[in-house]
């Protein structure tokens, strides 16, 4: 997985540098971050016709990876959505990881935090030779993004607003406009105490 970048509190180019600066995430103000971990509990299992947030296998105590899984939708060309999350508890990555995505690792992607707890994201397939959307089968990963814990306690929902998929059914076919709305299922982000 590629390293995520972060918007706040420091504009850093890599996750490794951020974690080195946080010194194991025990801060000078006594927040006790070393005694807590960030966790994500999904609202749903993957369901045909929906996009569902799941926990990625590369998650750790400091960082939780969110994988967006989609099934039962044909000819997907791209996606747009607004993650809504507890901004005082976690910090969102400023990019989207497309390694293993059915849209291709070279797809255009953008994720921008517009205010604490609110971000905008977009993904568009880049394929000038085929010009058709993708119907996911076993490889149903749309994208990944990440959250870093920035508090010793707290929790809140991860939801998605203005969530849409764009569809292109075949060569020469236009991308649907307006793009089709689809349900994105989120879950709960929380800071939990480590087991001694």
How is this structure best summarized?
With 196 residues, the chain is mostly beta strands.
Key traits:
elongated; mainly beta; seven-stranded antiparallel β-sheet; single chain; 12 strands; 196 residues
Could you explain the architecture of this structure?
The protein is mostly beta strands and about 200 residues long. It is built from one helix and twelve strands; from the N terminus they run αββββββββββββ. It has one helix spanning about 15-20, and strands at about 35-40, 50-55, 65-70, 75-85, 90, 110-115, 120-125, 140-150, 155-165, 180, 185, 185-195. The strands form two sheets. Strands 1, 4, 6, 7, 9, 10 and 12 form a seven-stranded antiparallel sheet that branches. It has a five-stranded mixed sheet with strand order 5-8-3-2-11, with no helix packed on it. Strand 2 and strand 3 (about 65-70) form a beta hairpin.
